[in-house]
Amino acid sequence: MVIKTADFVKSSGKWQECPEPNLPEYAFIGRSNVGKSSLINAMMNRKDLAKTSGTPGKTQLINHFLINENWYLTDLPGYGYAKVSKVQRRDFEKLINNYILNRNNLVNLFVLVDSRHSPQKIDLEFIEWCGESGVPFSIVFTKADKLKPNIAIKNVEDYKIELHKTWEDLPELYITSAEKKAGCNEILNFIQTTNEF
Ligand code: GTP
Ligand code: MG
């Protein structure tokens, strides 16, 4: 897919405040600092469309971007950020879960996990929740440039083994690097083929 335009639309503190759900939408979710905003920028070929930071907890609202004037790309706050209070963490979770469950035009959720780590409980629980809730999702491994390619592939294989303990069929998996712009075209192709525009 050729990206002709990518425009910030708005930041919302509640799903009810999001733009009218009149276009297909794709959202990025995952732990704080996993690289959601960076991958959005890499896919859109823009440096600063979504705000990134070395400090976890940068994205705190639901951010909508309008792409090619016919679909929405959404950057969500990360889950599991340890340094905020329990109440704040629960508020974030509520914001994310309500958005996912109520956003009728959401075509697919990309769940990002760090390719350097073995499967983490918080991510597995989130993936399980998506499955149980009937949310269509794919898994995106991030920061692959920080690993030797064979190690990245092995970590993905380990992840598959872990997922197979619960699921027979696995979702689409992508290995990406925002730094090297790897895996971006594959995700964009998937978006194009699942979209009706
Ligand atoms: P929150 O908004 O806080 O939830 O974080 P996020 O998931 O949006 O992460 P963000 O894109 O802000 O990136 C976090 C840090 O990881 C930044 O310092 C990025 O430069 C770095 N980073 C993100 N993607 C990559 C990648 O593919 N490779 C490398 N080497 N670093 C990355
Ligand atoms: Mg972010």
Automatic annotation (TrEMBL):
The keyword Cell cycle appears for this protein: yes
Keywords: Cell cycle, Cell division, GTP-binding, Magnesium, Metal-binding, Nucleotide-binding, Septation
Signal peptide: none
Cofactor: Mg(2+)
Gene Ontology biological process: division septum assembly
InterPro entries reported in the protein's UniProt record: G_ENGB_dom, GTP-bd, GTP-bd_ribosome_bio_YsxC, P-loop_NTPase
Gene Ontology MF term list: GTP binding; metal ion binding
All copies of domain EngB-type G, residue ranges: 22-197
Function: Necessary for normal cell division and for the maintenance of normal septation.
Annotated family: Belongs to the TRAFAC class TrmE-Era-EngA-EngB-Septin-like GTPase superfamily. EngB GTPase family.
Protein name per its UniProtKB record: Probable GTP-binding protein EngB
